[in-house]
């Protein structure tokens, strides 16, 4: 969906300054509750998992705890499976898919993997159904040294001591119609660049790491998800969101160069899921189920192919 008129904040061709960021912030409003949707379900898991607070998001007048879940019987001799959701707060099935996995499927991996799950990395953005944090910064471009996003920096600090033991990392995302109607136009305006309309793919796809793509791993995840929901086809150019399709429903990005959450570890197996919740062919339940199917397929493949670990 292309915008025929300039984004309503800022001057076309000029990057935002403090005034524009303040105007943008003034337009954001709380639309749902992190405490009700995420923290309350996590409280119900206490006794089955260790629920730990790994940081505090201080955005005056709010202070939101950053919470992760890990295996109750954590064993130093087992590899680690990392699951992250809600790095982009508006991508709902990433959050709820992670919670559903913890509730319904995680127990099946006890004694085989140590699980570390951060279901909602960006709670302020979750509540406002937005991509950015309070400072108009994208957490999923901020997994870098001296990160400009508190959300990203806190998660990096949590995972850093475990780096060498992470076998598989699944980062749960969505691609939505609002990417074209709001978030990409806002990004262009913020950075003082022209907005170039794109095409939203209808269906689920994965983003691998172009440096270490692991095509067999990616296809195993796609095959599992295809039993739950439809896989996005390539467009007329053989691409998905401007990147060449390298396998059914798979594209690759240079994840470390872009500062994506998938670069958080050097795990042998890493993937970023992309669910399309606006498809007339998918329900919210299917979207959550697709995320769970992706997690389980990724963990199962990693366990079957540990690559010497």
Describe this structure in words.
- Residues 30-309 form the Peptidase M14 domain.
- This is Peptidase M14 domain-containing protein.
- The protein has 309 residues and is of the alpha/beta class.
- The chain has a single domain, classed as Zn peptidases (Aminopeptidase).
- The protein has helices at residues 18-26, 34-43, 92-104, 123-128, 150-159, 178-191, 215-225, 255-258, 284-304, and strands at residues 49-59, 62-71, 80-85, 114-118, 166-174, 205-209, 239-240, 243-244, 250-253, 269-275.
- The strands form two sheets. Strands 1-2-4-3-5-10-6-9 form an eight-stranded mixed β-sheet, sandwiched between helices. A two-stranded antiparallel ribbon has the order 7-8.
- Helix 3 packs across helix 9 (284-304) and helix 7 packs antiparallel against helix 9 (284-304).
- The protein is globular and about 55 Å long.
Keywords:
309 residues; two-stranded antiparallel ribbon; alpha/beta; eight-stranded mixed sheet; 10 strands; Aminopeptidase; 20% strand
Quick gist of this model?
The protein is α/β, with parallel strands linked by helices. The protein is built from 9 helices and 10 strands. The chain has a single domain (18-304), classed as Aminopeptidase, CATH 3.40.630.
- Whole-number count of domains: 1
Instruction: Determine the oligomeric state from the structure.
Output: single chain
Q: What would you say the CATH architecture is? A: 3-Layer(aba) Sandwich
> Given the C-alpha coordinates, what overall shape results?
globular
The CATH class name reads Alpha Beta
Q: What's the number of helices?
A: 9
Superfamily at the CATH H level?
Answer: Zn peptidases
Strand order of the largest sheet: 1-2-4-3-5-10-6-9
How far apart the termini lie comes to 46 Å
Q: What percentage of the residues does DSSP assign to strands (E)? A: 15-25%
Task: Bin the helical content.
Answer: 25-40%
- Major sheet details: 8 strands, mixed
Record field, number of beta strands: 10
- Overall pLDDT, averaged? 96
């Amino acid at each position: 969906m292309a915008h025929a008129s300039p984004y309503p904040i800022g001057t076309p061709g000029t990057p935002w300054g403090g005034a524009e960021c303040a105007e943008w912030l003034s337009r954001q409003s709380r639309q749902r509750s992190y405490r009700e949707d995420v923290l309350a379900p996590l409280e119900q898991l206490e006794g089955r998992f260790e629920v730990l607070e790994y940081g505090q998001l201080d955005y005056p007048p709010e202070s939101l705890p950053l919470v992760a879940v890990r295996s109750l019987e954590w064993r130093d001799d087992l590899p680690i499976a990392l699951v992250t959701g809600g790095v982009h707060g508006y991508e709902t099935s990433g959050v709820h898919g992670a919670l559903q996995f913890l509730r319904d499927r995680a127990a099946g991996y006890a004694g085989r993997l140590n699980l570390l799950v951060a279901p909602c990395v960006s709670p302020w953005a979750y509540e406002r159904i937005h991509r950015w944090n309070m400072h108009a910064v994208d957490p999923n471009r901020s997994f870098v040294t001296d990160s400009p996003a508190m959300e990203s920096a806190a998660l990096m600090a949590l995972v850093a001591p475990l780096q060498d033991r992470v076998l598989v990392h699944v980062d749960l995302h969505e691609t939505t119609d609002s990417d074209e109607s709001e978030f990409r136009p806002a990004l262009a305006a913020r950075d003082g660049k022209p907005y170039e309309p794109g095409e939203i793919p209808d269906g689920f796809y994965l983003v691998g790491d172009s440096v270490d793509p692991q095509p067999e791993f990616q296809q195993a995840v796609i095959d599992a998800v295809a039993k739950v929901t439809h896989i996005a086809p390539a467009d007329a150019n053989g691409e998905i969101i401007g990147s060449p399709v390298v396998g059914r429903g798979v594209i690759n990005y240079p994840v470390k160069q872009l500062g994506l959450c998938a670069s958080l570890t050097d795990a042998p197996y890493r993937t970023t899921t992309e669910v399309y919740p606006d498809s007339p062919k998918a329900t919210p339940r299917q979207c959550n189920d697709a995320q769970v199917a992706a997690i389980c397929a990724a963990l199962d493949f990693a366990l079957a192919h540990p690559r010497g670990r």
